[in-house]
């Protein structure tokens, strides 16, 4: 059995607030005690002095298409694992693999492979972003493969995921949209409104039918208007909805991010990466499903049409930007990258906060909010190199 690990001296963000000079004790794969917690018997523990650092829960990404040069949407099992490792090294200890629009039969086959990885615990499930989205707001999706959300076809993808479908993004105003939302809810799958041209009223109808997530709020939907408030107003105002935000400085102006936080509140925001292959890898040419993407200076755009094509974001960068650029309280950022997405996935009994009995998934940040350590289930994925 692995020795007990005692992490001492850090500023630890707990559900009740931040505790200075605190202690977190890890036994095996679980957190045994927090701030201050009992000291282990002398000679039995591995002690790490984290004075001058922050200790926060591992990050949870519910919308991620890949990284490390590989795609979750069409790669092999080993490709997916390489992408998972890339994001793990940036603090993401739980990741949902997102599939981009593709041929329905291909998506079903690929979901079967992803379901095996979910069964093994390598990913937390599958998110289908398309093909049931609006051609008016397609973003970086192949328009020729888009289709209305037929409940029978939605059910085909749910079944192909063998119980590991976590979320599906729909343009709920399309024919079959509301029935598909109800079907997803019936099968325990999160219905997300996104890539939509819906009106305010149509969006409210989707939420009443059971939709609970806004896929990358502001992006791939009509802008907020004073006569036609559209989906943004409906999704922000409804307490049943959690809004995804891509905090990379490209997808959102800081004022838009602060606007969303102000209206949704800290408990209804989930930071996502919407990452594609180039995350943690570098500039160059990539494929996003069947579409070619050019990444330059860390920004991904379609070669044809120049639409933003996902991001190259990692959640450690989103965290640092939220604190140092956007001026958000650290506790609010922790909620957005850990607690809120964990709750959405129905996993808050295991992950999302530093509490006794939960998985020992945690991230060490220095006083500039740079990542220096990552632990997943009690084992260091990135070992802190401390002076």
From TrEMBL:
<feature type="binding site">
    <location>
        <begin position="219"/>
        <end position="220"/>
    </location>
    <ligand>
        <name>substrate</name>
    </ligand>
</feature>
<keyword id="KW-0378">Hydrolase</keyword>
<comment type="similarity">
    <text>Belongs to the metallo-dependent hydrolases superfamily. NagA family.</text>
</comment>
<dbReference type="InterPro" id="IPR006680">
    <property type="entry name" value="Amidohydro-rel"/>
</dbReference>
<keyword id="KW-0479">Metal-binding</keyword>
<feature type="active site" description="Proton donor/acceptor">
    <location>
        <position position="274"/>
    </location>
</feature>
<feature type="binding site">
    <location>
        <position position="140"/>
    </location>
    <ligand>
        <name>substrate</name>
    </ligand>
</feature>
<feature type="binding site">
    <location>
        <position position="227"/>
    </location>
    <ligand>
        <name>substrate</name>
    </ligand>
</feature>
<protein>
    <recommendedName>
        <fullName>N-acetylglucosamine-6-phosphate deacetylase</fullName>
        <ecNumber>3.5.1.25</ecNumber>
    </recommendedName>
</protein>
<keyword id="KW-0119">Carbohydrate metabolism</keyword>
<dbReference type="InterPro" id="IPR032466">
    <property type="entry name" value="Metal_Hydrolase"/>
</dbReference>
<feature type="binding site">
    <location>
        <position position="216"/>
    </location>
    <ligand>
        <name>Zn(2+)</name>
    </ligand>
</feature>
<dbReference type="GO" id="GO:0006046">
    <property type="term" value="P:N-acetylglucosamine catabolic process"/>
</dbReference>
<feature type="binding site">
    <location>
        <begin position="308"/>
        <end position="310"/>
    </location>
    <ligand>
        <name>substrate</name>
    </ligand>
</feature>
<dbReference type="GO" id="GO:0046872">
    <property type="term" value="F:metal ion binding"/>
</dbReference>
<dbReference type="InterPro" id="IPR003764">
    <property type="entry name" value="GlcNAc_6-P_deAcase"/>
</dbReference>
<comment type="pathway">
    <text>Amino-sugar metabolism; N-acetylneuraminate degradation; D-fructose 6-phosphate from N-acetylneuraminate: step 4/5.</text>
</comment>
<feature type="binding site">
    <location>
        <position position="129"/>
    </location>
    <ligand>
        <name>Zn(2+)</name>
    </ligand>
</feature>
<dbReference type="InterPro" id="IPR011059">
    <property type="entry name" value="Metal-dep_hydrolase_composite"/>
</dbReference>
<feature type="domain" description="Amidohydrolase-related">
    <location>
        <begin position="55"/>
        <end position="380"/>
    </location>
</feature>
<dbReference type="Pfam" id="PF01979">
    <property type="entry name" value="Amidohydro_1"/>
</dbReference>
<feature type="binding site">
    <location>
        <position position="195"/>
    </location>
    <ligand>
        <name>Zn(2+)</name>
    </ligand>
</feature>
<dbReference type="GO" id="GO:0008448">
    <property type="term" value="F:N-acetylglucosamine-6-phosphate deacetylase activity"/>
</dbReference>
<feature type="binding site">
    <location>
        <position position="251"/>
    </location>
    <ligand>
        <name>substrate</name>
    </ligand>
</feature>
């Amino acid at each position: 059995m692995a020795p007990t690990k005692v992490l001492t001296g850090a500023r630890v963000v707990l559900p009740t607030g931040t505790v200075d000079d605190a202690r977190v004790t890890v036994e095996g794969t679980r957190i045994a005690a927090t701030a201050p917690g009992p000291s282990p018997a002398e000679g039995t523990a591995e002690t790490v002095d984290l004075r001058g650092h922050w200790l926060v829960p591992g990050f949870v990404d519910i919308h991620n298409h890949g990284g490390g040069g590989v795609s979750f949407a069409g790669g092999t099992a080993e490709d997916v694992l390489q992408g998972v490792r890339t994001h793990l090294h940036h603090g993401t200890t739980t990741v949902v693999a997102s599939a981009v629009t593709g041929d329905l039969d291909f998506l079903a086959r690929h979901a079967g492979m992803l379901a095996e990885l979910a069964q093994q615990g390598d990913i937390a499930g599958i998110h289908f972003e398309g093909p049931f989205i609006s051609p008016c707001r397609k973003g970086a999706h192949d328009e020729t493969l888009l289709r209305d959300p037929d409940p029978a076809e939605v059910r085909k993808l749910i079944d192909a995921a063998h119980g590991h479908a976590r979320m599906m993004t729909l343009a709920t105003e399309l024919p079959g949209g509301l029935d598909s939302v109800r079907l997803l809810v019936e099968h325990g799958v999160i219905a997300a409104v996104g890539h939509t041209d819906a009106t305010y009223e149509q969006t409210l109808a989707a939420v009443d039918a059971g939709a609970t997530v806004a896929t990358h709020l502001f992006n791939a939907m009509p802008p907020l208007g004073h006569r036609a408030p559209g989906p943004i107003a409906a999704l922000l105002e409804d307490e049943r909805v959690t809004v995804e935000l891509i905090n990379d400085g490209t997808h959102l102006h800081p004022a838009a991010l602060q606007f969303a936080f102000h209206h949704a509140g800290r408990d209804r925001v989930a930071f996502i990466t919407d990452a594609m292959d180039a995350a943690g890898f570098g500039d160059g040419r990539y494929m996003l499903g069947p579409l070619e993407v050019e990444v330059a200076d860390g920004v991904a755009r379609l070669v044809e049409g120049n639409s933003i094509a996902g991001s190259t974001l990692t959640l450690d960068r989103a965290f640092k930007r939220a604190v140092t650029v956007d001026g958000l309280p650290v506790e609010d950022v922790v909620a957005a990258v850990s607690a809120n997405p964990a709750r959405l996935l129905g996993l808050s009994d295991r992950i999302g906060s530093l509490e006794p009995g939960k998985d020992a998934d945690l991230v060490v940040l220095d006083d500039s909010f740079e990542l220096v350590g990552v632990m997943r289930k009690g084992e260091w994925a990135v070992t802190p190199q401390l002076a």
